[in-house]
Fold this sequence. Notes:
Elements: H1 2-31, E1 35-43, E2 48-53, E3 59-65, E4 70-79, E5 85-91, E6 96-102, E7 114-122, E8 127-132, E9 137-140, E10 146-150, E11 155-160, E12 164-168, E13 173-178, E14 182-187, E15 192-196, E16 202-207, E17 213-217, E18 221-233, E19 236-237, E20 244-258
Parallel strand pairs: 2-6, 2-8, 3-7, 3-9, 8-10, 9-11, 10-12, 11-13, 12-14, 13-15, 14-16, 15-17, 16-20, 17-20, 18-19, 18-20
Antiparallel strand pairs: 1-4, 4-7, 5-6
Organism: Nonomuraea phyllanthi
Protein name: DUF4097 domain-containing protein
Amino acid sequence: xxxxxxxxxxxxxxxxxxxxxxxxxxxxxxxxxxxxxxxxxxxxxxxxxxxxxxxxxxxxxxxxxxxxxxxxxxxxxxxxxxxxxxxxxxxxxxxxxxxxxxxxxxxxxxxxxxxxxxxxxxxxxxxxxxxxxxxxxxxxxxxxxxxxxxxxxxxxxxxxxxxxxxxxxxxxxxxxxxxxxxxxxxxxxxxxxxxxxxxxxxxxxxxxxxxxxxxxxxxxxxxxxxxxxxxxxxxxxxxxxxxxxxxxxxxxxxxxxxx
Length: 259
């Protein structure tokens, strides 16, 4: 019996050591992941800008206000096997910035670490169109018209003054502190959440398949059209009101309330 206990104890010790070693190896491997930081300044005096992000989920894009007369692009790359192939192209004629990073095999389950995080500073009054494939897209503190889209990534906006338009195939859209007259948001599958600091005149928030809609608007009379499996509407509704709200989530919940 003592021998059996000794064997069991030895096996437990071996397992613990293996797990500990694996944990240490994972920590050391993460610590050795190469990182490359780069920055680029681009002269810019246009009124509108288009940013296109290629590749998949491994590329994220954050856009914030910078100084007039220039675009500033900051990029952080991280990889565990081969250095990413980077796209960083500026077309001055069309006002288009193309960004991206691809690693072989990074799109496979359990593939190597491969990430590119872009932070782009733009003049705050610029009209912006930004498209991504699968990474997250974030925009904040801008005053121009926004047109944002993603195939499968999430979109987030904060403190926006100007028209707001957003589309995502299988991602969610969340926009806070909107000081806009018009907001037009539609997703295939995902959630939509919009919060306004001023009374909007025209709001469209649509989920085509699965997902919920949450709208927070200042107190006022609205002509609201709400279609959902479950609805909770706590605003003043008048069919003759000039302010329009369309909220739709056929299999989800629509919540509309006062800010």
